[in-house]
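Annotated sample (chain length 164).
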Amino acid sequence: MIEFSIGLAGFSGVIAVFAGRSSDRRPLDLFRLRNLLMGALIPAFLAFFGLGLVVVLSDEFIAWRFSCVGAGVSYVFFIVTLLKGRASLPAEQREMVQTNVLFLALILLGILIVAQVIAATQVVAVDAFVVFYFGLISILFLSVYQFVRAVLESVRLGAHGVDS
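Output written by the structure step:
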């Protein structure tokens, strides 16, 4: 719980970074912030979900398989949110979203979904916990990348005197 609280407190700094920007960039900033927060909150809640299942269910193997199902569904939701959010941006801001980064994020999420399905169904004998765990780490890695980009962009805009 402490780590979760610290994480949420840390993201308040992200909100502060975006707060001073001009209103013409607001949709793009909100798109990025929403993705960043989802990428941090999905692993947090999935971890709580998985640990809860381990406690509630008598079989740890089944608990991690159900956790993989929850993770797969969450990752599908993340993809839908990414694509809908990008589509709702004004055209000039949609072009500011780096297509190659979005494409790589979608590929990563797709791979994670397939891995979660394989672990949940046991089509291939894999450790469901390991697949679930590395899925969470992958989403957090994606979020860290987004966070660093957001902070560096804010610093760059401030250094160039751009209306931020």
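Annotation: The helical segments are 2-19, 26-56, 60-87, 91-94, 99-121, 128-159.
Annotation: The mean pLDDT is 84.
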